[in-house]
Design goal:
With 423 residues, the chain is mainly alpha-helical. The chain contains 18 helices and 6 strands. The strands form 2 sheets. A 3-stranded antiparallel beta sheet has the order 1-2-3. It has a 3-stranded antiparallel beta sheet with strand order 4-5-6. The chain is globular. Bound molecules: carboxymethyl coenzyme *A (CMC). Carboxymethyl coenzyme *A (CMC) binds next to loops.
């Protein structure tokens, strides 16, 4: 590879391909003309070496454990900014001025109510439905309720849809929670900030006053910041792929929610908490470490390992601090925290985990923190979806504005060759 060109040699033939450099991170070989030139496709089913787009939103250096939103380190944002400032940054590329912040906060706050008819939509679900199932359905149904913001070619409609998604997803998530508990829905309160309003909608009941604890709502806000975007992960790529066909943003975000649900992705926080509970006590940790290492056992230590991070996930560090803050504030001594800390201690020194560069990821401590805040296990991935909505929206908007062509991967066909029916 030299002079911004990569040469591919097959047999006696050579072809040149351009190399594009980003502002930081690995450069890419542009193989868009590969098929036309060579009659061959590339093959990379898990996309381990494939850049699917160019983007200026989020940067990850997995070896160094770096995560930047629009250039700012995640820990600086989590310590110094609130979720809506980070949302503004992801959407528009810069942190808001005080006036821009006021205007953005006002617009999001005044879009938090959902169409009243949507509340009747919920009663079609079984009470014991998983709240992620409800999220997939109801967020997708926003296309039907907010038809006036589904024309993706109109910048104004794109902006309205973006604000609606960021504003209403927490309301829908809180409704899914309330529905599962049999309690009445609680309307948004405009006097509260984004995270406090969400907690109020989840935990208030009409028969008594509910005061949101500012330390806890700050922790909630920080958890939202940590999950807000993460480059071209499975759910974000799903949103982009769905959007590349011209589908409306509500449908695309519903597709992202479906992808997030899996235990290898956003479902890992729920799975991690289930595992800690199954282990139960510190003395059983070695047994589960052995299970995770056993090739004949499908068990994986949820909340450990990452496709991109080959060092400590920078979000996990902030999450661990937040976890201790929340437990201290509430005076909770959660035995699962002890189990988690012991798991982490052993895994970080165990040859199997060290060799494979498996470290705790963001989901490792988020479950314990959210449980202490009062959320049941099945709400954990929902909270991830609430936070990630802004990342999905920012990535969808960038894709539409870049006028990316429809995403259409090819395949290595391994089925029957042409054959005919015998009659
Ligand atoms: N426990 C035990 N072994 C593991 C784990 C784990 N959590 N993760 C990876 N490994 C092993 C795996 O068996 C393989 O070993 P070998 O080379 O001997 O076959 C090696 O490490 C590489 O694993 P991989 O499956 O090839 O790696 P991947 O990049 O395809 O998978 C992952 C990444 C996150 C899906 C995986 O680490 C995993 O399943 N972790 C548990 C689920 C989890 O915590 N997911 C949340 C990710 S962070 C939040 C998010 O972005 O959604």
């Amino acid at each position: 590879m030299e002079n911004g060109k990569a040469t591919l040699t097959i047999g006696n033939e050579n072809w040149d391909f351009d190399i594009h450099d980003g502002t930081v991170g690995p450069s890419v070989i542009d193989i868009g003309s590969l098929y036309q030139k060579t009659g061959r496709f590339t093959y990379d089913p898990g996309f381990t070496s494939t850049g699917s787009c160019s983007s200026s939103i989020t940067y990850i250096d997995g070896d160094e454990g770096v995560l930047l939103y629009r250039g700012y380190p995640i820990d600086e944002l989590a310590e110094n900014k609130d979720f809506l400032e980070v949302a503004y940054l992801l959407l528009y590329g810069e942190l808001p001025t005080p006036e821009e912040k006021q205007d953005f906060d006002f617009r999001v706050t005044h879009h938090t109510m959902v169409h009243e008819q949507m509340s009747r939509f919920f009663t079609g679900f079984r009470r014991d439905a998983h709240p992620m199932a409800i999220m997939c359905g109801v967020v997708g149904a926003m296309s039907a309720f907010y038809h006036d913001s589904t024309d993706i070619r109109d910048p104004y409609q794109r902006m309205v849809a973006s604000i609606r998604l960021i504003a209403k997803t927490p309301t829908i998530a809180a409704m899914a929670f309330k529905y599962s508990t049999g309690q009445p829905f609680v309307y948004p309160k405009n006097a509260l900030d984004y995270a406090a309003n969400f907690m109020h909608m989840c935990f208030a009941v009409p028969c008594e006053e509910y005061q949101v604890n500012p330390i806890l709502s700050r922790a909630m806000d920080r958890i939202f910041i940590l999950h807000a975007d993460h480059e071209q992960n499975a759910s974000t790529s799903t949103v982009r792929l769905a959007g590349s066909s011209g589908a409306n943003p509500f449908a695309c975000i519903a597709a992202g929610i479906a992808s997030l649900w899996g235990p290898a992705h956003g479902g890992a926080n729920e799975a991690a908490l289930d595992t800690f509970a199954e282990i139960g006590t510190v003395d059983r940790v070695p047994e589960y470490i052995d299970k995770a290492k056993d090739k004949d056992d499908p068990f994986r230590l949820s909340g450990f390992g990452h496709r991109v991070y080959k060092s400590y996930d920078p979000r996990a560090k902030v999450m661990e601090r937040t976890c201790h803050e929340v437990l201290d504030e509430l005076g909770i001594k959660d035995p699962l925290l002890k189990v988690a800390m012991e798991l982490e201690r052993i895994a970080l020194t165990d040859e199997y985990f060290v060799e494979r560069k498996l470290y705790p990821n963001v989901d490792f401590y988020s479950g314990i923190t959210l449980r202490a805040l009062g959320f049941p296990n099945n709400m954990l991935t929902v909270l991830f979806a609430v936070a990630r909505t802004v990342g999905w929206v920012a990535q969808w908007k960038e894709m539409v504005e870049d006028e990316q062509r429809i995403g259409r991967p090819r395949q290595l066909y391994t089925g029957s060759t042409l054959r005919h029916m015998t009659t």
